Every structure is written in C-alpha cells, then in structure tokens.
Amino acid sequence: MFSSTVIAQIIPDPTLPNNSQVTNQGSTSNISGGTRAGNNLFHSFEKFSLPTGGTAYFNNDLNIENIISRVTGSSIFNIDGLLKANGTANLFVINPRGIIFGSNARLDIGGSFVGSTANSINFPDGSRFSATNPEIKSLLSINVPMGLQYGSNPGAIQVEGKGHNLTIPIPLFSPVLGAGTSINSLQVASGKTLALIGGEVSLRGGILTAPGGRIELGSVNDGVVILNPTGWTLGYQNVQDFQDIKLSQQALVDASGFGGSSIQLVANQISLEDGSLALIQNQGTQSSKSMVFNALNSIQLSGTSPNGEISSGFLNETLAGDLDDIIVSAKNLLIKNGATIYSKTFSNANGSNIILNVPDSIQVSGFSSINPGIASGIGNYTFSLGKARDIIINTGIFLGLDGATVLSGTFGSGKGGNLTINANQKVELSGFNPFIYLASTQLAVGAFNTGDAGILTVNAPEVVLRNGSNINSYTLASGNSGSVVINAEKSINITRESSNTLVYDQPFGISSTAAFTSKPIQELLGLSPFVNGNSGSVTINTKRLNLREGTLINVSNFGSGDAGNLNINAEYISLDNSIVAAATESGKGGNIFLNSNVLQLSNNSSINATARELGFPSDISSNSTRRNLNDAGNININTIIFIASKKN
Q: Domain of 629?
C-alpha cells in the first residue's frame, strides 16, 4: 500500500479551541495538543495518512480516558503503520470518507478502539463532535460518547492482510491451533473492544484480534448507532438501512482468550469465504459471551482455506470455561462448499447453543471442492465431560443437499445436545457426497463414546427425503442414541430417485440405531469394537406417510443393547418396496405401533420385528431366529383399511 520512503501526512485542522499539533521525528509523528474536556481529549485533522513502518503517537496524559479524533478533509483515513497512545485510553476515530487499514497496520493502545465512518460522535448533553460540519471553537463535551451519527452512503472500511495461518491437526476432532495469537493483526489489549462501524466493511485477508474482549463489525447506511460504554457494546435499533460485511482470503475475526469474549456482526448481508472465520476459543475458566450475526437480508458462508483445512464460518469452542450462544438472524442463510457453523467443547465446560432464526430459508449444501471430506454443516459437539448443548433452527424452508450434515454429537462422556428444526413450510433433504462412502445428507444426533445423544425433533408441514438422505439418531458405542420425533402436519415422503450404487448400498430414511462401524473409524474415534448402547424411539405424526423404492423407517440395535419403539400415527400409510422395522441382535427388540385409517403395502414391502437382522420378509411378521435371547418386539396395527399387493 505504501512505499517505505513515503512520509506520513498527518495534518491538523484549525477547528478546535486548542488545535492538535504534529511533530515528525523520523518515521514517528508525535501528536500532542488537542482540546481537553474532562477526561476526554479531542483531536481534529484535515488529513491522516500513515505509511508502512510509520508511527502515529498520540502523546496523551495518563489520566485521559477517551481520545476522540476526527478527519474533516476529503481524504480517506489510510493506515499501514502503528497507531499508539499512552495509558489505558480508548481511541475513537471518525472519517466519513472511509478508513483503510493496510496489511502492516497495528494498534498499541491500552484501551478499546472504535473506527467509524460516521458523520459525528454524539454525547448525552446533546452536543456533537462532527467531521462534516466542524463548529470552530465549539464547546466540547466532558461526557462519555453515546452514539455515532451516520449520513447516507457513509464511507467504507477496509482491512487488508495476508490471511490467517490457523490449523486443525485432525479436522473436527482437534481444537484450532493459533487462536488468539495472530502476529499480523489489528489487535487491542486483553479484554478490550475492537469496533469497526462504517458503510461497507470488508476484510480481505485482514485479521482482527481482541483477546478475551469484544469485536464488533457494523455496516450501516443511515441512522444512529448507540454506544454503550460498558464494554463498548453497540446498539442498532435506530438504524433502518444497512450495507454489507464481507470477509475473504482467510480473513479472521478472533476474540479468543481467557473468557469474556464476544463477537457481533450486523449488516444487510454478511458473507464469509475462502476459509474466513469468526472465532472464539475460550482458553480460561471464565465463561465467554455470545457470538451474534445479524443480517437484514442474508448470510452466506462458502468454502474453505486453500489447503482445505479451515472452513469458512462461525466457530465457538472451549478448552476450559463455558460458552455462550451462537445466534444467527437473517432472512436467508446459505452454507455451502464446506462452510460450517460449529460449537465444540474439549473440557468439562458446556458448549454453546446454536440458534438460527431465519424466517425465509436455510440451505446447507455440499462439501469442500478442495477437500471433499469436509461437508458443509451445522454441528454441536462435545469431546469430553461437557455438554454439547442444543441446535435450534427456526425457518420457513430448510434444505439439506449433496452430503451436507446437521449433527449434534457426543464424542466423550458429556451429553449430546438436542437438535430441533421448526420450519413453517418444508424440510427437504436430498443427495449425498459421492466422494465419501455412506456420506448422505443428514439430520442427526449421535453418540460416539459413553455420553448419550440428545433428541432430534422436526416440526414442519411437509418433510421430504430423497436420493440417499437420512434423519437419524445413532450410537456407535456405549452411549445411548436419542429419540427421533417428526411432526409433519401434511405429509412425509421418502424416495430413492437415484441409480448410483453408493445410494443403493445403504438403506436410508428415518431411524434410530445402534450399529458397528468400520475399524478405521473405530481407531479414529477411539471406540471399542463392542456396541452396547441402547437405540432410541422413533415417533412420527403426519397425515400422509409415503415410502418408495427401498426406503425404510426403523429402530434397530445390532449391538448388545435394546432397540427403541417405533410409533407411527398417520391417516394414510403407503409402502412401495420399502420397510418399517424393529430389529435387534441380542437385546430387547423394539415394538411397532401403527395407527392409520389406510395402510397399503406393495412390491415386497414389509412391516417386521425381528431379533436378528433387517430384511425384506413377505408381509407382516414378528419373529425370533435365535434362542436364549430376548424376544423380538411386538407389532400393533390399528387400521380401518389394509391393502397388500405383490409386485406385478
């Protein structure tokens, strides 16, 4: 951005009772003077530009609490060097024309930093410190700033950088290495706030760091942003129009530290791509605070880092203290090409709830084109004693496509969280990842160790599963799998629609199971070769239930545990070359309860309870093929019309 031979251009203007003074000593520009009002120190500049390797040193008294600076000229606030101040003073900078931080920009201040393209800073006594209409020799306020006043089309804020170098030794199963330690970053002191509030806000490889503090990005178009001096949290209730926030080229917003961390992004549209990440890693025993992402229009998360290791998205993880919630609010949410929203606990502390309030639609789609092993997804995981907590999704239409995964799982002894989807129009899942065997699109809760899985609940008028997709609860270990509850007022349709052999190699549909997994996965997860957890129950309430082309609904246990019960309440049930089953290997078999006005079976469909394995018996059966074991479950059918037909 700058040549090392360029001299800083920091030019005071004559608009203060006591004007700012700048003295250049080599590459350092010493800034003194300014007008003091109480514990506030005001500076005003016609131009403020700092080259690579340069230093702008605000030489304030140590008892100054707030350094409040404005740029009144026509040029952008352009920084590629060091901004420095004494003591613990907070530094405020406003320039309506725009702000650029180059890849070498740094902060050396003891307090918080607020960079804004507002027209003015407002004070409780009604006074304003304006960059667009500076009142010469005006009376300046002794009060703490309370608001940022924006005009229409405020200038943009841009942060440049070379991108983060975070790593995850074992994807999903390891915490991020390098959290909170980025050297080439715009960073505030521990526990302080770093806020950038402008028109469009973009981080192109830029890194923002606030160890155990708060990072705030806001993209507004007009109105007043409220400043709360307690932690310098911001309120946007007086802003009606917003612009966009974009993070690209492995940009990083990192508030990792020893507790107390929080992040908030507010805009019209928020997009993260190329492995760009909003991150909190709680490294201390104090609880962290929430991660909030609020878009008036849409949020788009896409892709991974160039090495395929770091997903774009939002990550909240703990090594010690509890996590607060991840809260996402937007009209539409798109997660694709390996991007993720994850919460993880690697300690006895609890993870975070993931709460998505997206009234129009959520689409979670596909996998990383660089590393097909990374699926797009939403996940809440525990790897130790802590509880994973819940995933709560409220939307109009939920779409899961091409191997995407929404999973709440326990890989430790802590309890897995619940997964709840409330869609007022439809939930539709389709497809699989063709590069990974059995990697279907799925909604799931899972137990991969001694902890029990949570409950999976889907509430929607229509539920559609196509082309290899699943809604399931499972255990691969001694923990119990959770129950599955689906309430679909209109219909549930499950169909295959694919000739791909990967799809035909596996049954799919709705299930709660306990099953063995492959030896490589056992070794990766540290699992015993024995599965002794119980599988949960499956409850389905709908008007019409249609299963087609080799699909199934089942409760099964192929380990030593018991299978759960299967309860289906539907006015109309139709099975075409499909299965409703309860199966167990050695434990107690699950019962099947069907309540329907019309039950139709065709093309070798079956309803069966067996104490050995799933199969395709001819019609309806309850049987046990092994002695000295618990019995197969019972089948209870309550129907007015029963139709059974063979394949023509």
A: 444-648
